[in-house]
Amino acid sequence: MREKVDKIILHIGLAKTGTSAIQRFLFSNKNKMFIDYSILYPGNHENHRYLHALVAEDPCSLRQLRELNLSDSESIQLFIKSYKDDLLDEIKNTAPNTVIFSSEWLSAMTYKELTLLKKFFHDISDNLEIIAFVRDPLEFSLSVTQEMLRSGQISGGVKFGYMAGNIEILKTFEQVFNVTLNVLPYIERNKENSINRFMQAIGFDDCPYDSSIYSNQNPSMCFELSAILTKFNEHYPQFDKKGMYVFDPIRDWVLDALEISTKFGTPLKLSRESALRIYLDAKNDIDEIESRYFGGTKYFTANYNDLNFTESDDSVAIEKINRDILIIVFFKSLIFLASKAIHYYKYSNILLEKLDSMQKLQSKVIGTKS
Question: Which residue among 261, 283, 313 closes a domain?
């Protein structure tokens, strides 16, 4: 970069903190923000999920690249180069005052990779601000368990426990980038709009555009879907024996069918016993986050005191589902899959008919000219 921009704002999209809603908002309002405030949200994707790939030690192992189903390492390298060039060209050509990057994949990066990413950012600007939302460990553990079930990372029965906290991730970013992070609590029960809070964090008193149309969270999984997935993931995993992500659109179709077929399901809730166990396991992280980033305000501690818990067993397994409900779910899933298959069959035939008509018309035109 011959001319550096004034500032980079990096949003670390920690798990289950409304990151997708923020990214959709920034991407949808990209042109407005640039014209009105000289703020650029670069790239042709809603999120910057391929930032990690620019500096990855082993790009071929990254799930976000494997999802592209690229044929070989050469194709992957060409994609990475093109992605990087497009980002830098856009920044050079528009010359904004501020550039915003947002990715939910940054927390998986190693210390070495983050150091290389720091150099990449430094070539663009000398001024970097980092923003992150952190979720309460109770809500976080429940939500991440659901996401791991959905992605095939958990199989067999599930017993809820503390998912590793974010304090070490935040500390690593502070060490590498040598900046003080702006860390905000994300508490689902408050029903706060993470977009508005993000815009305030980057310097706006009020969000300048309508943020109500962007969903703040993914729908929670019900007990029935969670239990079925514990068995489904045993037989149809999404990762091979080496732990590498396997691109499989068939599995995605089945997952869609199961999600739609369990809309009637029972809400998934933590028992008081699990909640207490998670809270005690997370207490050191909670205390440090509240003192280090929240100025001593007990956002997460208060959240534990205010939540309602059940006294029943909250373990998740397919054996706990009534047989009649299971039959209904599988019938609904079969109907959904059959409907989807018919839709795509008709769609493919329409395309083939259009192609055939175009070829006939082309032959007729060529014959007339002759």
Answer: 261
Tokens 């390492």 — which residue? 73
Which of 72-81, 210-219, 252-261 has the weakest average pLDDT? 210-219
Comparing C-alpha atoms, which of 5, 3, 23 is closest to residue 13? 23
Is the pLDDT at 369 greater than 70? The verdict is: no
Strands 182-186 and 128-135: parallel
The one-character DSSP state at 363 is H
Number of domains in the chain: 2
Range of the domain at 334: 322-369
Residue with tokens 């029965």: 157
Sequence-ordered alpha helix ranges (H) in the chain: 19-28, 30-37, 51-55, 63-66, 73-94, 111-122, 137-151, 167-177, 194-201, 223-235, 249-261, 272-292, 299-306, 323-369
pLDDT in tens, 234-265: 988 888 877 788 888 889 899 999 999 998 88
pLDDT at 160 over 90: no
